[in-house]
Each structure stands twice: as structure tokens, then as C-alpha cells.
């Protein structure tokens, strides 16, 4: 059983390494931006998750805002991008 867990951890580590190398090489040509936003009106909460891959960096961000009054989370979310995952690929001019 221990060997199965060890092999699973090794495979997962290898996949993470390969993904990092792919994003690193891809970053020389394009910039990727993944963002996911959640608005919870009942809990008066807005949460945004962002992952950006560029030529020289990987950026991960989690923003969690809580509002005092009902409806403020919805107002805030109207000034942000739509809820859901998106990929923006912008070609770099050379």
C-alpha cells in the first residue's frame, strides 16, 4: 500500500514539474490569465482567484472581500469581470 502511495506522489510531482516547464516555455510567446470570481449575496462576500503566467513569472492571487451591507457584493462584482474561468492570450510584439 505504501508503494502505491509513493508512486502516486512521484507521478503527481512529475506532472506538476512538467506543467511548470510548459508554462515557462509558453510564457516566452504568450501571456495567460485565468480568473475565477464568486459572489455570495447571502454572505455579503466576493472572492476572486487569479493565476497569471508571463515570460518572467507565475502569479497566484486570492482576494476575499466581505461587505457590511446586503447588495454591496453585487455592486462590487459589476465592476469586475464576469464570473467564471477565462483565458486571455495576448501575443507579444517582438
Characterize the structure shown.
By secondary structure, the protein is an alpha+beta fold. It has one domain. It has helices at residues 2-26, 72-78; strands at 30-40, 45-53, 58-66, 90-91. Strands 3-2-1-4 form a 4-stranded antiparallel sheet. β2 (45-53) and β3 (58-66) form a beta hairpin.
| Proportion of beta-strand residues | 25-35%
Succession of helices and strands: HEEEHE
- Which sheet architecture does the biggest sheet show? 4 strands, antiparallel
- Strand order in space, largest sheet: 3-2-1-4
Helix content: 25-40%
Total number of helices = 2
Report the uncertain regions: none
Give me the Rg, rounded.
18 Å
Protein structure class: alpha+beta
Q: What is the tally of beta strands? A: 4
Distance between the termini: 52 Å
Please state the average pLDDT score. Answer: 80
Number of domains: 1
Shape descriptor reads flat
Short structural summary:
With 94 residues, the protein is α+β, with helices and mostly antiparallel strands.
Layout of helices and strands, plus pairs?
Blueprint: H1 2-26, E1 30-40, E2 45-53, E3 58-66, H2 72-78, E4 90-91
Antiparallel strand pairs: 1-2, 1-4, 2-3
Amino acid at each position: 500500500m505504501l508503494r502505491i502511495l509513493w508512486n502516486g506522489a512521484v507521478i503527481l510531482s512529475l506532472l506538476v514539474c512538467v506543467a511548470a516547464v510548459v508554462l515557462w516555455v509558453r510564457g516566452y510567446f504568450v501571456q495567460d490569465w485565468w480568473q475565477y470570481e464568486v459572489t455570495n449575496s447571502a454572505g455579503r462576500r466576493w472572492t476572486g482567484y487569479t493565476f497569471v503566467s508571463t515570460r518572467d513569472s507565475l502569479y497566484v492571487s486570492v482576494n476575499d472581500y466581505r461587505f457590511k451591507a446586503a447588495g454591496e457584493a453585487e455592486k462590487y462584482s459589476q465592476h469586475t469581470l464576469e464570473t467564471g474561468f477565462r483565458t486571455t492570450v495576448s501575443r507579444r510584439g517582438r
